[in-house]
Amino acid sequence: MARSRRTLALSGMLGLALVLPSALPAGATQARETRQSTDFQNLNGFMWFYNTYFDYKFKDIEKDLDDLKRSGVRVLGFFSPYNGDKNTCDGCSPLDFYSVPPQNGTMKDWEKLVDAAHRKGMKVVTYFVNIYLDERSEYFQKAEEQYAAGDRTSREVSSFRWTTDPTEPLPDLRMGPPWASTWEYSETAKAYYWKLWFGPGFDYDLAGNTAEIARIEKFWLDTGIDGFMWDVGTTDPRWKPYAVDIPTTYTTNDKWLTHERANAATAQANIDFGLTSWFNYQDSDTVNDYSRIVDGTIDPDGLEAALHNTDIAREAGATTYTWSIWGDDPVANLDPHIYPTYPQDDVMRVQEAALLAGSGILYGAGMYDQYIRWSPKLKSNWEKVLRTVNANKALLPAADRTRVPVGDDPQAYAMRRTSENGKQTALLVYNFDDAPKKVTVDLKGTGIDTTQTPKDLYNGGKAPAIKGNKYTVTLPAYGFTILDVKSR
Q1: What are 141-190's pLDDT values in tens digits?
Q2: Considering only CA atoms, which of 51, 97, 98, 104 is closest in space to residue 78?
Q3: Which one of 30, 48, 96, 271 is separated from 478 by 20 to 30 angstroms, measured CA to CA?
C-alpha cells in the first residue's frame, strides 16, 4: 500500500485477456513443480481499513465480510489493530499494544473478526509499529515513575534506553531520518530517554526492549494475524528475529511480511532478509505502475521492466504489491474525504485493476473510506475485475508471466500468464489510449487454437472469433476484456 505514513511528520472498460489451457515452455513444468506457492500467491484483492482514524467497528466489518468477499476482496488490512493515537500518524502511534482502539470495539470483537474472515477463506494483515511507543502511553509513564524511584530492572524500565548524559551516542539501529532520533529529557524520570519518532524508541540492542517486542508480537500473532507491514523498516540483521523469525515460527500460517520502505529496487536484499512481499514500484500514495504508463512517465518497455519485478518475487516464493491511487494526508484527503482520481476514473481505475492485479501484483484499495465513495459503476466493474482474477488461476500471483508482441504501438501492451500447474494460460492486452483503437496481438507460439470463438469471462457471452496467428480486437479508450479460449 503506498504507505506514506509520515505525512504529518514528513511533510468501456473492455480489453483483452485470453485464458486457455496450454503447455508451459520447454523446461518450465519441472521448474514449477519444485516450488510450492504460498497462500498469498493464490489470491488477490486487498481492502485497507484506517480503523482508528475513521472509528470503524470490528463488529460491522465482520457483518460485511460476505459482501466484501463477493466484491472480490480476499485480504483485509488494518491500520492498526492496537490502541493508537488517532491524531498521530492516523492511528499507528501506539498508546497500548495490549488493547484495541476503544472506538473499534473490544479485543474479543477483533478476535471474532479474524476468526470469521479465516472461515471465509480471507486473510487479515496489519500495518504495525514495532520501533517505538507513544510517549503518552501508560506503560512509558509507569517506566518514568519507576526510574525516578530508583528502579532499573522492572519490565517497564528495562524496555527503554536511559541516560543521564545527552552526549552519549544514540542507538545506531534507528529506523528513520537522523532528526527523528534524539535524547529526550523526562521531567518525571529526571533522566534522558531515547526518542524515536513520537516516543521512546525500541532499541534492538537492549535485551529488556527486545523481550517486550517479542511479547507484543506474540500477543497479536495469537489472534491469528496473517501478516505485517512494519513501520519504516530495515534489513539490518538485528531486526530480523522480530520482523521475520517470530512471525514465521510462532504461528504457522503463511505470512505476508513487508516493511514500509521495501520495494523492487531492493528485491534481493528483501529476499535474503526473509520478507515475503514488497512494493512493485515504491512507497507512494498517488503513483503506481499503471499511473506511470497512462501519464507517459514510462513506455511499454518501461512497463515490461516494471512488471518483471513480479517475476523476480514469484520465483523467490514472494509477491509484490501496489494499490489503486489514493492519499492519506489528513488535510488534503482524510478530513474532507477528497482523494486522487484519474481523468476518466470510472474506466481508468478499472483498467488499473485489470493491469496490476492481472499481472500478478497483489492489488486493492488503499483506503476503505475512498472505496465507498466511488461511483456505483466504478465499484461494480472494479470488483468484477477482482472476482475474475480470483476465479482464474492463470491470473493469480502464482502464475508465470511473459510479454507478448503487439507491434510498435506505444499505447498498447500484452502479456501471457500461465497457471502454476500449467493447465491455464492468459493473454492480456491493453489499450492505454484515451480513444478507441484496434490492437493486434501475435499468437504464434502461445498454444492458442487459432480457429475458435472465445468465451468472454469478464463480460459474459462470446468474443470475436480467432482466425489465425494475428488476432485483432477493437478496444475502447482505456480498454480491456477477458476471454477464455481453447488450446490446440
Answers
A1: 999 999 999 999 999 999 999 999 999 999 999 899 999 999 999 999 99
A2: 51
A3: 48
